[in-house]
Protein backbone atom coordinates (compact mmCIF):
# COMPACT_ATOMS: atom_id res chain seq x y z
CA UNK A 1 0.00 0.00 0.00
CA UNK A 2 1.12 3.55 -0.78
CA UNK A 3 3.00 4.98 2.26
CA UNK A 4 1.12 8.29 2.12
CA UNK A 5 -2.16 6.42 2.05
CA UNK A 6 -1.09 4.37 5.07
CA UNK A 7 -0.23 7.58 6.91
CA UNK A 8 -3.58 9.12 5.97
CA UNK A 9 -5.45 6.07 7.25
CA UNK A 10 -3.48 6.15 10.52
CA UNK A 11 -4.00 9.91 10.91
CA UNK A 12 -7.71 9.59 10.23
CA UNK A 13 -8.04 6.87 12.86
CA UNK A 14 -6.17 9.00 15.40
CA UNK A 15 -8.45 11.98 14.65
CA UNK A 16 -11.53 9.79 14.95
CA UNK A 17 -10.33 8.50 18.32
CA UNK A 18 -9.58 12.04 19.52
CA UNK A 19 -13.04 13.29 18.51
CA UNK A 20 -14.60 10.51 20.60
CA UNK A 21 -12.88 11.52 23.84
CA UNK A 22 -14.96 14.65 24.51
CA UNK A 23 -18.29 12.78 24.18
CA UNK A 24 -16.93 10.13 26.56
CA UNK A 25 -16.05 12.82 29.10
CA UNK A 26 -19.43 14.52 28.64
CA UNK A 27 -21.11 11.16 29.14
CA UNK A 28 -19.31 10.75 32.46
CA UNK A 29 -20.23 14.29 33.52
CA UNK A 30 -23.83 13.61 32.53
CA UNK A 31 -23.91 10.69 34.99
CA UNK A 32 -22.96 13.06 37.79
CA UNK A 33 -25.34 15.75 36.51
CA UNK A 34 -28.31 13.40 36.96
CA UNK A 35 -27.57 13.08 40.68
CA UNK A 36 -26.85 16.81 41.05
CA UNK A 37 -30.11 17.73 39.31
CA UNK A 38 -32.03 15.37 41.59
CA UNK A 39 -30.36 16.94 44.64
CA UNK A 40 -31.18 20.45 43.40
CA UNK A 41 -34.80 19.45 42.80
CA UNK A 42 -34.96 18.08 46.36
CA UNK A 43 -33.54 21.36 47.71
CA UNK A 44 -36.22 23.29 45.84
CA UNK A 45 -38.90 20.99 47.28
CA UNK A 46 -37.45 21.36 50.79
CA UNK A 47 -37.48 25.16 50.52
CA UNK A 48 -41.04 25.01 49.24
CA UNK A 49 -42.14 22.87 52.19
CA UNK A 50 -40.39 25.25 54.61
CA UNK A 51 -42.40 28.13 53.12
CA UNK A 52 -45.62 26.11 53.39
CA UNK A 53 -44.91 25.34 57.06
CA UNK A 54 -44.16 29.01 57.75
CA UNK A 55 -47.41 29.99 56.06
CA UNK A 56 -49.39 27.46 58.14
CA UNK A 57 -47.78 28.71 61.35
CA UNK A 58 -48.52 32.29 60.34
CA UNK A 59 -52.18 31.41 59.75
CA UNK A 60 -52.30 29.65 63.11
CA UNK A 61 -50.87 32.75 64.81
CA UNK A 62 -53.47 34.95 63.14
CA UNK A 63 -56.21 32.63 64.40
CA UNK A 64 -54.76 32.77 67.90
CA UNK A 65 -54.80 36.55 67.75
CA UNK A 66 -58.38 36.43 66.47
CA UNK A 67 -59.31 34.08 69.36
CA UNK A 68 -57.84 36.54 71.84
CA UNK A 69 -59.88 39.31 70.23
CA UNK A 70 -63.02 37.17 70.39
CA UNK A 71 -62.38 36.35 74.07
CA UNK A 72 -62.13 40.06 74.81
CA UNK A 73 -65.32 40.63 72.85
CA UNK A 74 -67.16 37.89 74.79
CA UNK A 75 -65.95 39.39 78.08
CA UNK A 76 -67.30 42.75 76.97
CA UNK A 77 -70.64 41.17 76.00
CA UNK A 78 -70.83 39.48 79.42
CA UNK A 79 -70.34 42.87 81.11
CA UNK A 80 -72.95 44.48 78.89
CA UNK A 81 -75.43 41.70 79.75
CA UNK A 82 -75.36 42.93 83.36
CA UNK A 83 -76.21 46.43 82.19
CA UNK A 84 -79.08 45.49 79.83
CA UNK A 85 -82.23 47.55 80.42
CA UNK A 86 -84.60 46.11 77.82
CA UNK A 87 -85.34 42.95 75.83
CA UNK A 88 -84.23 44.49 72.51
CA UNK A 89 -80.73 45.13 73.82
CA UNK A 90 -80.64 41.64 75.33
CA UNK A 91 -81.51 39.97 72.04
CA UNK A 92 -78.90 42.06 70.18
CA UNK A 93 -76.22 41.06 72.68
CA UNK A 94 -77.28 37.40 72.53
CA UNK A 95 -76.99 37.45 68.73
CA UNK A 96 -73.59 39.12 68.95
CA UNK A 97 -72.49 36.53 71.52
CA UNK A 98 -73.73 33.66 69.37
CA UNK A 99 -71.83 34.96 66.33
CA UNK A 100 -68.67 35.44 68.41
CA UNK A 101 -68.92 31.88 69.79
CA UNK A 102 -69.35 30.49 66.26
CA UNK A 103 -66.25 32.42 65.24
CA UNK A 104 -64.40 30.98 68.25
CA UNK A 105 -65.46 27.48 67.24
CA UNK A 106 -64.37 28.07 63.63
CA UNK A 107 -61.04 29.56 64.73
CA UNK A 108 -60.33 26.55 66.95
CA UNK A 109 -61.20 24.18 64.08
CA UNK A 110 -58.86 26.11 61.80
CA UNK A 111 -56.05 25.93 64.37
CA UNK A 112 -56.56 22.17 64.65
CA UNK A 113 -56.56 21.86 60.86
CA UNK A 114 -53.39 23.96 60.55
CA UNK A 115 -51.71 21.84 63.25
CA UNK A 116 -52.49 18.61 61.37
CA UNK A 117 -51.28 20.10 58.08
CA UNK A 118 -48.10 21.34 59.77
CA UNK A 119 -47.37 17.86 61.19
CA UNK A 120 -47.90 16.34 57.72
CA UNK A 121 -45.63 18.96 56.14
CA UNK A 122 -42.94 18.39 58.78
CA UNK A 123 -43.08 14.64 58.11
CA UNK A 124 -42.71 15.36 54.40
CA UNK A 125 -39.82 17.71 55.17
CA UNK A 126 -37.98 15.00 57.12
CA UNK A 127 -38.53 12.56 54.27
CA UNK A 128 -37.14 15.02 51.71
CA UNK A 129 -34.17 15.83 53.94
CA UNK A 130 -33.35 12.11 54.26
CA UNK A 131 -33.57 11.72 50.49
CA UNK A 132 -31.29 14.73 50.01
CA UNK A 133 -28.78 13.32 52.49
CA UNK A 134 -28.73 10.00 50.59
CA UNK A 135 -28.45 11.81 47.26
CA UNK A 136 -25.53 13.96 48.47
CA UNK A 137 -23.72 10.83 49.69
CA UNK A 138 -24.31 9.23 46.28
CA UNK A 139 -22.99 12.39 44.58
CA UNK A 140 -19.72 12.09 46.51
CA UNK A 141 -19.30 8.46 45.43
CA UNK A 142 -20.29 9.12 41.81
CA UNK A 143 -17.99 12.15 41.62
CA UNK A 144 -15.00 10.07 42.68
CA UNK A 145 -15.86 7.42 40.08
CA UNK A 146 -16.47 10.04 37.37
CA UNK A 147 -13.24 11.89 38.17
CA UNK A 148 -11.31 8.60 37.92
CA UNK A 149 -12.96 7.77 34.59
CA UNK A 150 -12.23 11.24 33.18
CA UNK A 151 -8.63 10.98 34.34
CA UNK A 152 -8.30 7.62 32.54
CA UNK A 153 -9.91 9.05 29.39
CA UNK A 154 -7.52 12.02 29.42
CA UNK A 155 -4.56 9.66 29.78
CA UNK A 156 -5.76 7.67 26.76
CA UNK A 157 -6.30 10.92 24.82
CA UNK A 158 -2.76 12.09 25.61
CA UNK A 159 -1.39 8.79 24.32
CA UNK A 160 -3.31 9.20 21.05
CA UNK A 161 -2.19 12.84 20.77
CA UNK A 162 1.44 11.79 21.23
CA UNK A 163 1.13 9.13 18.53
CA UNK A 164 -0.61 11.61 16.21
CA UNK A 165 2.08 14.24 16.77
CA UNK A 166 4.77 11.65 16.15
CA UNK A 167 3.08 10.75 12.87
CA UNK A 168 2.71 14.41 11.87
CA UNK A 169 6.43 14.88 12.41
CA UNK A 170 7.10 12.70 9.38
CA UNK A 171 4.02 13.66 7.38
CA UNK A 172 4.21 15.14 3.88
CA UNK A 173 2.92 18.74 4.13
CA UNK A 174 1.09 18.70 0.80
CA UNK A 175 -0.67 15.46 1.69
CA UNK A 176 -1.54 16.85 5.14
CA UNK A 177 -3.01 20.04 3.60
CA UNK A 178 -4.98 17.91 1.15
CA UNK A 179 -6.34 15.79 4.01
CA UNK A 180 -7.24 18.80 6.18
CA UNK A 181 -9.21 20.41 3.34
CA UNK A 182 -11.38 17.30 3.07
CA UNK A 183 -11.62 17.00 6.85
CA UNK A 184 -13.14 20.51 7.13
CA UNK A 185 -16.41 19.25 5.70
CA UNK A 186 -16.11 15.46 6.05
CA UNK A 187 -15.03 15.61 9.74
CA UNK A 188 -14.12 12.08 10.90
CA UNK A 189 -15.02 10.55 7.54
CA UNK A 190 -12.30 12.20 5.45
CA UNK A 191 -10.66 8.79 4.90
CA UNK A 192 -13.08 5.87 4.51
CA UNK A 193 -12.94 2.23 3.47
CA UNK A 194 -14.49 0.77 0.35
CA UNK A 195 -16.78 -2.16 1.06
CA UNK A 196 -18.74 -4.11 -1.54
CA UNK A 197 -17.47 -1.60 -4.10
CA UNK A 198 -19.12 1.30 -2.26
CA UNK A 199 -17.64 4.39 -0.59
CA UNK A 200 -18.37 4.17 3.13
CA UNK A 201 -18.57 7.94 3.35
CA UNK A 202 -21.39 8.68 0.92
CA UNK A 203 -22.39 4.99 0.43
CA UNK A 204 -22.44 5.42 -3.35
CA UNK A 205 -21.12 2.65 -5.60
CA UNK A 206 -17.81 3.49 -7.26
CA UNK A 207 -16.98 2.55 -10.84
CA UNK A 208 -14.77 -0.40 -11.74
CA UNK A 209 -11.75 1.75 -12.64
CA UNK A 210 -11.77 3.61 -9.32
CA UNK A 211 -12.46 0.36 -7.47
CA UNK A 212 -9.48 -1.29 -9.15
CA UNK A 213 -7.21 1.61 -8.13
CA UNK A 214 -8.41 1.35 -4.53
CA UNK A 215 -7.75 -2.38 -4.45
CA UNK A 216 -4.21 -1.87 -5.75
CA UNK A 217 -3.55 0.78 -3.09
CA UNK A 218 -0.68 2.27 -5.06
CA UNK A 219 -2.12 5.79 -5.25
CA UNK A 220 -4.31 8.06 -3.16
CA UNK A 221 -7.80 7.73 -4.66
CA UNK A 222 -10.77 10.03 -4.05
CA UNK A 223 -14.42 9.07 -4.31
CA UNK A 224 -15.80 10.56 -7.53
CA UNK A 225 -19.12 11.20 -5.79
CA UNK A 226 -18.08 12.91 -2.54
CA UNK A 227 -14.33 13.50 -2.73
CA UNK A 228 -13.36 11.47 0.32
CA UNK A 229 -10.09 9.54 0.36
CA UNK A 230 -10.69 5.83 -0.19
CA UNK A 231 -8.84 2.75 0.95
CA UNK A 232 -9.41 -0.98 0.71
CA UNK A 233 -11.72 -2.28 3.45
CA UNK A 234 -11.19 -5.58 5.26
CA UNK A 235 -13.86 -7.36 3.23
CA UNK A 236 -12.22 -6.23 -0.01
CA UNK A 237 -8.82 -7.39 1.28
CA UNK A 238 -10.23 -10.85 2.07
CA UNK A 239 -11.96 -11.07 -1.32
CA UNK A 240 -8.80 -10.00 -3.15
CA UNK A 241 -6.63 -12.54 -1.32
CA UNK A 242 -9.18 -15.26 -2.01
Automatic annotation (TrEMBL):
From which source organism is this entry? Aliarcobacter trophiarum LMG 25534
Q: Does the keyword Isomerase apply?
A: no
Question: Which residues fall in a coiled-coil region?
Answer: 67-152
Pfam short name (any one)? CT398_CC
Under what name is this protein listed?
Zinc ribbon domain-containing protein (DUF164 domain)
* Record's keyword annotation contains Phosphoprotein: no
User: What's the superkingdom here?
Assistant: Bacteria
Q: Which residues form the CT398-like coiled coil hairpin domain?
A: 12-183
Q: What lineage is on file?
A: Bacteria, Pseudomonadati, Campylobacterota, Epsilonproteobacteria, Campylobacterales
List, for all copies, the residue spans of the domain called C4-type zinc ribbon: 198-230
- Keywords of the record: Coiled coil
Amino acid sequence: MNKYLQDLIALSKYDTSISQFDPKIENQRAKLAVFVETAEALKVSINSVYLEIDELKSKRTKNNIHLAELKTKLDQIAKKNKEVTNEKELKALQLEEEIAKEQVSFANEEIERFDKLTVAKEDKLKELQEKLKTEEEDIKEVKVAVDNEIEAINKDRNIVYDKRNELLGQFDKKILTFYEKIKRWAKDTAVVPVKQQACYGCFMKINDKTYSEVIKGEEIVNCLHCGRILYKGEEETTATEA
